[in-house]
Amino acid sequence: GLLEAASQQPEIEVMDALEDDDDEEEEGMETIRIGDKRIWIRTSALEDKATAVSMIACFVAELGGGFLPYVEQVAKVMVPLLRFFYHDECRSSAASCCPDLVKCVASHGEAALPQVKQLFSFIMPTMLDAISGEPDVDVLVAIVEAFGETIDAAGTAVVVEQTELLSKAALVLAEVLQDRVDRKEERRVQAQADGWDEEEQEDADIEDAKDDELLDRVGDAIESLLRAAGPVFLAAFESADEKKGIPPLVQTFASMLSPERPANERRVALCVFCDVIEHTGPAGKAYTERVLPAMQMYATDDDQDVRQAAAYGIGACAQHGGEIFVRAGGEGVL
Question: Sign of the C-alpha dihedral, residues 179, 185, 303, 297?
Fold first, then answer.
């Protein structure tokens, strides 16, 4: 059946790179050289596995609450596949399946809340590890998107209790953003050093676009976390990973409000701080005074998406900021 196909282990053989070097590659097999080793992988079996995983994900999405009897069995297959590095499509399909599994259980109402908590606690640690270790940006986009959707599916009653997980989520997302900056800088340095031609520059632009989409998905995930956990997540949002030297999310997004930063970064930062003000209660009000000047400045920006985000942010400051909004000079905008 499908579950059996999705569960099958890849057929892999590792040998010295010089051993049997003259052998022709078999049909349905792929060879990868890593250092002094050669890895043989039966790709035909991997394709069968990927197809099965994709079909199961479709069934879960389409059947909704009717899939409940199979949720536990499928979760035990899908969640480990988030770190199945032999096939990108397996990881992406497994990721897309996770929020649908949670939605399936949650659709059965309050009586199913213990099962939602159990499933959420089973999925999330592996999903965060997968985000932290994912080498492919396209797959990373899919997993981060699934992460945010899983938070939404579980809901406040489940997420707000997970203080340790919320702290880890903030650190993992901060690391994702730092890695994104590092990749962009590496491409910029290479372009200057090597004098890229038009084709190489086009390839770099494609990679930049992937990283820009990743930023959008991280922003969406932070909105989901703030909406679900509010002030509880705010503490994690403001915390740094001192061991790795990664700044807190609040610092990363504050730096994106600089006029020198690209329009998409300013837009996402405006949206994130708007979510902070909307969803974190009294603690979020304090941000009104800090970000309102940027929102006022970008309300007349050349980029229409930045203008829209700034205008919405000013409205959020007016609605939630109260006297702080007035003191910060917000009335002059309205």
Answer: positive
Would you say 152 and 228 are in contact if contact means Cβ atoms under 8 Å apart?
Answer: yes
Contact status, residue 290 vs residue 313, Cβ threshold 8 Å: no
Strand-pair partners of 126: none
Q: How many CA atoms lie within 13 A of 210 on its CB side?
A: 19
Mind listing the pLDDT tens digit for each residue in 109-135? 999 999 999 999 999 999 999 999 999
DSSP state of 24: P
DSSP secondary structure letter of residue 109: -
| pTM score | 0.91
Residue by residue, DSSP assigns 118-175 as HHHHHHHHHHHHHHHH---HHHHHHHHHHHHHHHHHH-HHHHTT-HHHHHHHHHHHHH
Helical packing angle, 263-279 and 304-321, nearest 10°: 20
Q: In the chain, what is the straight-line distance between the N-terminal and C-terminal CA atoms, in Å?
A: 62
DSSP designation for 39? E
